[in-house]
Design brief:
By secondary structure, this protein is an alpha+beta fold. The protein contains 28 helices and 28 strands. The strands form seven sheets. Strands 5-4-7-2-1-10-13-12 form an eight-stranded mixed beta sheet. It has a five-stranded mixed beta sheet with strand order 15-16-17-19-18, covered by helices on one side. Strand 15 and strand 16 form a beta hairpin. The longest helix is centred in the last third of the chain and has 25 residues.
Length: 848
């Protein structure tokens, strides 16, 4: 892995030396099908790059990761691959003013989701290919200058097996010789070029707006076609195009718009212009809730926003990754709320996306939104909650600060001024200053160039009649930022907790008085950051906290309720509220939660509260409370409703007693029924999971389930369940498959890790803590970045939540000061999670 790295300094030097006129990439993918005796299955890649020397110097390098190079020709001069190619780079000397480079190589198909991923469908034996490059894996498919600021136009030509269709960024067709040839692209960066090839099921439509017509396509594996609701995908796509055209005043610039749902995908999706790729889990094989459809719509719109923020205008280097990801994350929720049926998307944003940001911003690896990205390993890890969700939250704050019209006008000018170019932070700030009249440099210094999350707490005094004499907001944090925030006052009325007063104010410094609320009657709840205008952790005065303990479910406004759930969870994570208290509130009021996405988040938090943050002596009782509460709500839910389905999954995930297991077995074999509950195949796997992890479903029983669902998804479920069984031999085998071997695909590595790590098996997997620390540095050096991240994060012994594990982590960090910074970051983050859990357990234990 280290030999494949690229530093920011190297990229800047190369950008100062040359500019790229264009690429011609010729791929022969016929080797993807049929038997192969090669230890590594490869394909031929022939690339012609035309570039000019624009700076001082006559030497540079081109990036390529390939098993072998057949030929390198620079300006007609043959170079010896054995001399110039080191496995990751080809050295180029004696550059002319204008240069033509030809590289003919054998590149490897991937099983890790990086580069050219090859997947064989177990259901019908068909082979499917797709590429995934971000941040720097195009070099696994063709030779290139792998950095975002060396944009160029591309022409792709692909020879594929008979019967296949091939797609790329531009429109294409098969010529008389059987070669797929694609139109030249606009200037784009290497990481957003794309090839998708195989016998995909393909559906077409079109979007028209005045004289603009955009051909639309959507595809998936043939075996998933029966589940593919392409009509809904196209509906959201068209609504998104309407929204962005209305607000951006810049027509979609990349011709066609295909969307491919592909197998074993590492990401949620990728914004390749004209050829967006998504994980195929967004094709739902069974009944799911509206929250799942909302999530898919949000991702579709997020990727569409990238066509402008990221593809049309691209950051110079990964330091300014936020210039695309924060904007796309914000615009996804913005468009979802205003252009689709998911009008409550800001509730999901407040409850779900921000939770990701709050966690990331409290880790030792937290960083400013505009980060210091030294190299590609740093870049890979910075696709995180700071860059996405905190950045989006800060943009939401910016809209409140500068005004919606000024923000959108700034975006319009930004696109027109920098189309097909590369930008830095200063470029955007200059335009926003023009449109808003605000000092954006000061705003950026506070919000973009510092790290950490503030907490805002109300401090209220009253007169003898119970009216507010002063309401102040206290701000804590290393950086006291300017917040445009609303404060809402709520009181109980007719069994409901409703808002009766609200004021917006600029919160600055350690203490800010909200003068507009003086004289109001005493509230039962003071909600700082009402309407979720700013990015902060909400705290409560004692009276408000007691109101929430008794009446959280009485809050009528879904967004206010979601903010309160999130705030209580932050108190629990921060060791300021006992985990068992959070569980009590959840069991009392989750059954009344109307927003299904919020309910699912609360379910996840409640399970984490018992698993991670409850005192060890209370875990067993806490688990019983969750299971009994889950079953109670399952039986009470409306038959056939999405709430019933959500509670069924929660009950299965928390089942721990004999009666629980008997009910699950009865639901699986048909001897037990719950009115309205449709036990489809996906739910069957969820019901079987606890039976496997508690030793009540053996390999044969799991095999029987696979026979009912002998698909790629079924295989992943089977792999996970097999690894979850409570057996020393099972754990040893799973460990060896992931740590000592690299034969599993990325999807099966993920499934095996998920099965290996079971909260009910702490003692069984305890011996692997020492093995983990002995293996991770070697593994990091041998595996791809993605697999390295998955294993180092997934197998960290966080369930061994004892001071001894913390000490072992500290010892590894001390003894491996020279380990790769990205690896150390992962271990530091896991250490912080463990230390947080121990602090929360101590808090919970004090209530015993």
């Amino acid at each position: 892995m280290p030999g494949e790295n690229l530093s920011r300094d190297e990229a800047h030097e190369r950008a100062a030396l040359l500019s790229v006129d264009g690429y011609e990439v010729v791929l022969d993918l016929r080797s993807a099908v049929g038997e192969s005796d090669e230890p590594v299955r490869t394909f031929r890649s022939r690339t012609t790059i035309r570039f000019r020397r624009t700076g001082e110097g006559t030497s540079t390098f081109v990036d390529l990761i390939a098993p072998s190079v057949n030929e390198v020709t620079l300006n007609g001069r043959s170079l010896d691959p054995a001399v110039v190619f080191d496995g990751a780079r080809i050295t180029l000397d004696d550059l002319a003013d204008e240069n033509t480079l030809v590289v003919d190589a054998q590149c490897a198909y991937s099983r890790t989701g990086e580069g050219m991923h090859r997947f064989v469908d177990p259901e019908d034996g068909e082979v499917y290919l797709y590429t995934q490059y971000e941040p720097a894996d195009a070099r696994r498919v063709y030779a290139n200058f792998e950095q975002p600021d060396l944009k160029a136009p591309y022409r792709f030509s692909v020879t594929a097996p008979e019967g296949w269709t091939v797609w790329s960024n531009g429109a294409g067709d098969k010529d008389a010789e059987g070669v797929w040839r694609f139109a030249e692209t606009a200037p784009i960066s290497t990481y957003i070029t794309c090839v998708v090839a195989g016998p995909y099921h393909y559906v077409t439509d079109s979007y028209t707006r005045g004289e603009l017509e955009i051909p639309l396509g959507a595809m998936c594996r043939k075996s998933l076609a029966k589940h593919f609701d392409a009509d809904d995908v196209f509906l959201i796509t068209k609504q998104g195009f309407d929204f962005f055209h209305d607000n951006f005043d810049y027509p979609y610039p990349f011709g066609k718009y295909d969307q491919a749902f592909v197998p074993e995908y590492n990401l949620g999706a990728m914004e390749n212009p004209g050829m967006v790729t998504f994980r195929e889990e967004y094709i739902y094989r069974g009944k799911v809730t509206q929250a799942a459809y909302e999530s898919r719509a949000n991702v579709i719109l997020h990727e569409m926003a990238h066509m402008w923020f990221g593809d049309l205008v691209t950051m110079v280097w990964w330091d300014d990754l936020w210039l695309k990801e924060s904007f796309a994350d914000f615009m996804g929720s913005f468009a979802n709320a205003e252009a689709t049926r998911f009008t409550n998307s800001w509730v999901t944003f407040a409850n779900n996306r921000k939770a990701w940001a709050y966690r990331a911003d409290q880790l030792p690896s937290t960083h400013p939104i505009t980060a210091d990205i030294r190299d590609l390993e740093d870049a890979k890890l910075n696709f995180d909650g700071i860059t996405y969700a905190k950045g989006a939250s800060v943009l939401k704050q910016l809209v409140a600060y500068a005004g919606r019209d000024a923000f959108l006008e700034g975006a319009r000018r930004y696109f027109k001024r920098h189309a097909y170019g590369n930008t830095r932070l200063a470029d955007l700030l200059a335009i926003l200053e023009e449109t808003s009249g605000r000092d954006m440099k000061a705003w950026a210094k506070s919000w973009l160039q510092t790290s950490g999350v503030n907490s805002l707490t109300p401090a209220v005094t009253y007169d003898a009649e119970g009216r507010i004499t002063e309401l102040a907001v206290l701000q804590e944090g290393d950086e006291l930022r300017p917040h445009r925030a609303a404060v809402g006052l709520y009181r109980l009325s007719g069994g409901e907790l409703v808002r009766y007063a609200r004021a917006e104010a600029d919160i600055t410094g350690a203490r800010s008085v909200v003068a507009e609320l003086a004289g109001e009657e005493r509230p039962d709840l003071v909600l700082v950051n009402d309407d979720d205008l700013t990015y902060c952790k909400i705290r409560f005065d004692e009276g408000s906290l007691e109101t929430l303990r008794a009446h959280l479910g009485d809050i009528t406004d879904p967004l206010a309720r979601a903010l309160c759930w999130s705030a209580l969870w932050n108190l629990t994570r921060d060791g300021l509220m006992p985990a068992r208290d959070f569980v009590a509130v959840a069991l009392a009021f989750a059954g009344r939660e109307t927003d299904i996405g919020v309910l699912q988040m609360v379910h996840g938090w409640t399970k984490s509260a018992v698993t991670l943050y409850a005192a060890p002596g209370w875990r067993e009782e806490g688990g019983r409370l969750l299971a009994s509460g889950g079953l109670r709500e399952l039986r009470a839910a409306e038959p056939g409703s999405e709430h019933q389905l959500t509670w069924a999954r929660f009950f299965a995930a928390t089942a721990s007693a004999e009666a629980d297991f008997q009910l699950l077995e009865g639901l699986l074999d048909g001897t037990a029924k719950i009115d309205g509950l449709d036990v489809d195949q996906e739910l069957r796997w969820a019901l079987l999971s606890p039976l496997a992890s508690h030793g009540r479903a053996d390999e044969a029983r799991i095999g029987e389930e696979l026979a009912l669902d002998d698909t790629a998804t079924g295989k992943r479920h089977q792999t996970r369940l097999l690894a979850s069984r409570p057996s020393e031999a099972v754990k040893a085998q799973a460990w060896a498959q992931v740590v000592e071997s690299d034969t599993l695909s990325n999807a099966l590595v993920e499934a095996t890790i998920a099965g290996f790590v079971q909260p009910s098996q702490r003692e069984l997997i305890a011996p692997y803590a020492e093995k983990y620390f002995a293996a991770i540095e070697r593994l990091w050096g041998e595996r791809s970045i993605q697999i390295g991240i998955d294993v180092v994060r997934g197998l960290f012994p966080g369930l061994q939540d004892r001071p001894e594990t913390l000490a072992a982590t500290d010892a590894w960090l001390s003894e491996h000061a020279g380990a790769a910074p990205a690896l150390r970051r992962l271990v530091l983050e896991a250490r912080d999670d463990l230390a947080r859990a121990l602090r929360a357990q101590e808090c919970d234990g004090r209530t015993a």
